[in-house]
Amino acid sequence: EVESPPKDEL
Amino acid sequence: MNVFRLTGDMTHLASILVLLLKIYATKSCSGISLKTQELYALVFLARYLNLFTDFISVYNTVMKLVFIGSSLAIVWCMRMHKMVKRSYDQELDTFRHYFLIAGCFLLALLVNEKFMFPEVLWAFSIYLEAVSTIPQLVLLQRSGNVDNLTGQYVFLLGAYRALYILNWIYRYFTEPHFSRWIACVAGLVQTALYADFFYYYFLSWKNNAKLQLPS
């Protein structure tokens, strides 16, 4: 499973 | 960080500054929906809880603190400040925003990236942001007249959403694992809500006339 990228948006 | 994202964030920041300027300079919040402002405060509080868990960048942290702080300050002014409170169009701002909160929370429980507390809260904040502008648009529609600063405020908010869509398209093509479909679908809905307002905004701009919405 690909780890989802960090939520970097505001 | 791409140019669309940065411009989007700056437009969002500008919209808040315009609103603060309006309240500070005119000591009036006429035309502004308290319900929408309360929803925004809730959106930011729910989404930026990760302020304490994951660090992304100084830019990210500062912007989150600014958004939380300014939204709470605006709600405080509209509820507590004697002069500002008097100008609030309470009888026009009757949209039942509690239904929006309940609906978005239910949706977040059902549709999320992972059934975990922070993820459900994140999805909730995304859904709620998408619809939180509805009380504001309803208020403007009811009053018909839109003063200059309120018009700029809503226009900047809509522009911020449109720029975020360009940002997602850019990221989709340039980043290998970028797929934030929850945010993208909610963002599209949110931007679509502004379409009608944009139409009248451009009409008034083209004719160099005061912004008026049909009732």
Automatic annotation (TrEMBL), chain B:
<keyword id="KW-0675">Receptor</keyword>
<keyword id="KW-0931">ER-Golgi transport</keyword>
<dbReference type="GO" id="GO:0015031">
    <property type="term" value="P:protein transport"/>
</dbReference>
<keyword id="KW-1133">Transmembrane helix</keyword>
<protein>
    <submittedName>
        <fullName>ER lumen protein-retaining receptor A-like</fullName>
    </submittedName>
</protein>
<dbReference type="GO" id="GO:0016192">
    <property type="term" value="P:vesicle-mediated transport"/>
</dbReference>
<feature type="transmembrane region" description="Helical">
    <location>
        <begin position="179"/>
        <end position="202"/>
    </location>
</feature>
<keyword id="KW-0813">Transport</keyword>
<feature type="transmembrane region" description="Helical">
    <location>
        <begin position="55"/>
        <end position="77"/>
    </location>
</feature>
<feature type="transmembrane region" description="Helical">
    <location>
        <begin position="98"/>
        <end position="115"/>
    </location>
</feature>
<feature type="transmembrane region" description="Helical">
    <location>
        <begin position="153"/>
        <end position="173"/>
    </location>
</feature>
<dbReference type="GO" id="GO:0046923">
    <property type="term" value="F:ER retention sequence binding"/>
</dbReference>
<dbReference type="Pfam" id="PF00810">
    <property type="entry name" value="ER_lumen_recept"/>
</dbReference>
<keyword id="KW-0256">Endoplasmic reticulum</keyword>
<keyword id="KW-0812">Transmembrane</keyword>
<keyword id="KW-0472">Membrane</keyword>
<dbReference type="InterPro" id="IPR000133">
    <property type="entry name" value="ER_ret_rcpt"/>
</dbReference>
<keyword id="KW-0653">Protein transport</keyword>
<dbReference type="GO" id="GO:0005789">
    <property type="term" value="C:endoplasmic reticulum membrane"/>
</dbReference>
<dbReference type="GO" id="GO:0006621">
    <property type="term" value="P:protein retention in ER lumen"/>
</dbReference>
<comment type="similarity">
    <text>Belongs to the ERD2 family.</text>
</comment>
